[in-house]
Design brief:
The chain is α/β, with parallel strands linked by helices. 40% of the residues lie in helices and 14% in strands. It has helices at 5-12, 16-31, 50-60, 77-91, 105-117, 133-139, 158-164, 187-204, 265-278, 286-295, 303-319, 351-359, 385-390, 392-400; strands at residues 37-38, 100-103, 123-128, 144-149, 169-175, 209-213, 236-241, 254-258, 323-324, 331-335, 363-364, 366-367, 376-380. The strands form 3 sheets. It has a 7-stranded mixed β-sheet, with helices on both faces. A 4-stranded antiparallel β-sheet has the order 9-10-13-12. A two-stranded parallel ribbon has the order 1-11. Strand 9 and strand 10 form a beta hairpin. It is globular.
């Protein structure tokens, strides 16, 4: 059976992240794990915290009839209640379980939201650079991503957002801390976005849904805070997961929280529940709904990521690679250095060429073009200290020969 033409085209331009990750597996088989410096994918190298592991052991030993069966598509009420308590604390707004839909990771939750709100031809604004899978999640449901430039410090440019918005604009996705830049949007940023959204609604009569994608919310540095969004704009949903903060990316557990102040809030929740079912997810994994309800607030030592950030930052400074100082998450977004070799002069600012060059030294990074951030590369430092420390000589040699 031939593959659909548009799927072939999408596959050919699919995620740079996954391509580099898979190439890294091949390189490690060839050279050995210790001789390949793989910074390609945000796959947490920290183990899940003790509280999560204890919950898994405890719950695995239960013998309750039906505990692995179907439940309401929105998830178990006890799991939704736990996520409502979490969201209430983060947002400073009372959120009930009826505003929560358990999801198959943040990606499943975001697809369910897009399915619920997009009509064919709708547009979704996204400050660039951004996680490239947004393009597919929006296109899956008939929409189109409109990348919007940010300010030089990677904070949102509200004037640019206003200029990009029109009657077809259905949603705005923000990601704080941001992948790939690590930027945290301040409360002032969120207030400015809300003012733009209000002005747009008054101008066009259409309310833009603000979608806050927050899987990195807990991973912050220097006592930084991730601003709430619910208090500032009623038409807001949060999609998130426990992939990054609890190191559970393979368990695919997350949720959607709908702002109780949203107009037709109940209808939006029902639409997300319906979308979860018809997209084939049916419901979030039963066992891990129980695990997360029991252990979502397990303490985690994120200082390990802070030390990795410092170590890789020092290596890049020594090598002569500039980068944006991240407020959170676990990525360094690095500017492609100016070529020092005459034969590479034509590659100035070429992130794909620089990533190919790094591969000669067994360093794997991701071109910024894949994030709508040409001229930059992303390095994920959620890797072992051995990988980071071992890469120092390779980075120096790579830049010297660039």
């Amino acid at each position: 059976m031939p593959v659909a033409k548009h799927i072939k085209e999408l596959m050919s331009s699919s995620s740079f992240i996954r391509k580099m990750f898979e190439e890294g597996i091949q390189m490690k088989a060839r050279y050995g794990n210790d001789n390949v410096y793989d910074f390609s994918i945000g796959n947490p190298d920290l183990e899940p915290p003790a509280g999560v592991k204890n919950a898994i052991r405890k719950l695995a030993g239960l013998d309750e009839p039906g505990m692995h069966g179907y439940m309401p598509n929105a998830g178990y009420q006890f799991a939704r209640e736990a996520m409502a308590a979490k969201t209430s604390a983060e947002q400073g707004v009372k959120v009930g379980f009826e505003h929560i839909v358990m999801g198959v990771g943040a990606a499943g939750a975001l697809n369910s939201v897009m399915k619920a709100v997009l009509s064919p031809g709708d547009e979704v604004l996204v400050p660039a650079p951004y996680f490239p899978e947004y393009n597919h999640y929006v296109a899956n449901h008939g929409g189109k991503v409109v990348p919007v430039p940010v300010k030089p410090d990677f904070s949102p440019d509200v004037e640019a957002l206003s200029a990009a918005a029109n009657e077809k604009t259905a949603a705005l996705i923000i990601n704080s801390p941001n992948n790939p830049s690590g930027k945290i949007y301040s409360e002032s940023d969120i207030r400015s976005i809300a003012a733009f959204l209000q002005a747009h609604k008054e101008k066009t009569g259409r309310a833009i849904l603000l979608v806050a994608d927050e899987p990195y919310r807990s991973i912050v540095y220097g006592n930084k805070k991730v601003s709430p969004v619910f208090p500032f704009w009623p038409e807001t949903v949060i999609v998130t997961s426990f992939a990054k903060n609890l190191s559970l990316p393979g368990e695919r557990i997350g949720y959607t929280a709908v702002n109780p102040a949203a107009e037709d809030c109940g209808e939006l929740v029902d639409a997300v529940v319906f979308a979860t079912r018809v997209l084939g997810y049916v419901n979030a994994p039963a066992f891990f709904q129980r695990v997360i309800a029991d252990s979502w607030d397990a303490p985690v030592d994120y200082s390990l990521y802070a030390r990795r950030r410092e170590a890789l930052s020092n290596i890049l400074k020594e090598a002569g690679i500039d980068f944006a100082e991240p407020d959170g998450a676990f990525y360094l977004f690095c500017r492609v250095p100016e070529p020092g070799k005459k034969e590479n002069a034509s590659y100035a600012g070429n992130d794909k060429a620089f990533c190919d060059h790094l591969k000669k030294y067994r360093i794997l990074g991701v071109p910024g073009s894949g994030f709508c951030g040409p001229g930059w590369i992303r390095l994920a430092y959620c890797v072992s200290p051995q990988t980071i420390n071992g890469s120092a000589g390779a980075f120096k040699e790579a830049v010297l020969n660039w």
